[in-house]
């Protein structure tokens, strides 16, 4: 088996609290052909001093430092574009997350079984608990259409911070990270790749995602925003036609009715205190502004689902109350 180069890219800003652990997890990887690209977003803490300790590390470390702090999405974009042309695969590792030592090796070995595999995922531990990402152990390879369909229907979670992807595939998209979503741009990028490739999943817990006060997950997807559901509206409308085909209109309506009921429930629970406006804006952008008629339609649908075989939406994200 050949040993293709894997570029692990780490965008970081003021990461001194966890960065050394992240760097060490890359140095501990068993895959022999690696380079670690770190993009320091003009940190003002001890990040640069930590990076200095890895100048002569076993896995080569290449550090880029931005002259000034740039937006989060732009820093991720800079990191991906910094991967060398000789790299076959790119893997994004946030500056506070970790990889199991055999993580990259296991994913490369699966990817190398089929040149049409463009995106590779794995099981992971989130904040101390192994997540159930719902992908079956067999099969381990899915068409892009099936992978997106499973994601939208809640039968397989796409965890972008633990993904690996082929560079020749990501090079087809510039910018790599779409600009439509403030927090979900990384998931959006993986779904876009899957419109042109297969998805493979290693059913082992090979990564660790840390959730803390300053993490992207907490800032953009904490209880104060419920942004996962907002992003789901965008994903259903953007990727639903590819994933659902002629059933897209039906699935889109199922989601919209569910979403309207969620918004009404959130308003009843806490009024406008928890960024309800982002959800009203999402419905409006999708062509369905909140109104008495759209609320009545969602309420009638709920009653029909209660007394008949019609199913309410139970897909992505499904966990925000």
Describe the structure.
The chain is an alpha/beta fold. It folds into 2 domains: 6-221, Spore Coat Polysaccharide Biosynthesis Protein SpsA, Chain A; 227-307, no CATH class. 40% of the residues lie in helices and 17% in strands. Strands 1, 2, 3, 4, 5, 6, 7, 8, 9 and 10 form a 10-stranded mixed sheet that branches. A hairpin with a 2-residue loop joins β6 and β7 (129-130). α5 packs antiparallel against α9 (227-244) and α9 packs antiparallel against α10 (248-270). The longest helix is centred in the C-terminal third of the chain and has 23 residues, at 248-270. The chain is globular, with a radius of gyration of 20 Å. The mean pLDDT is 91.
- CATH class type of the largest domain: Alpha Beta
Largest sheet: 10 strands, mixed
- Secondary-structure content class: alpha/beta
Count of separate DSSP helical elements: 12
The low-confidence parts are: none
Strand tally is 10
Number of domains: 2
Mean pLDDT: 91
Name of the CATH architecture of the largest domain: Alpha-Beta Complex
Q: How do the helices and strands follow one another from N- to C-terminus?
A: EHEHEHEEHEEEHEHHEHHHHH
Q: Could you tell me the CATH topology label of the largest domain.
A: Spore Coat Polysaccharide Biosynthesis Protein SpsA, Chain A
* Ends distance: 48 Å
The best one-word shape is globular
Residue fraction in strands:
15-25%
Helical residues, percent: 40-55%
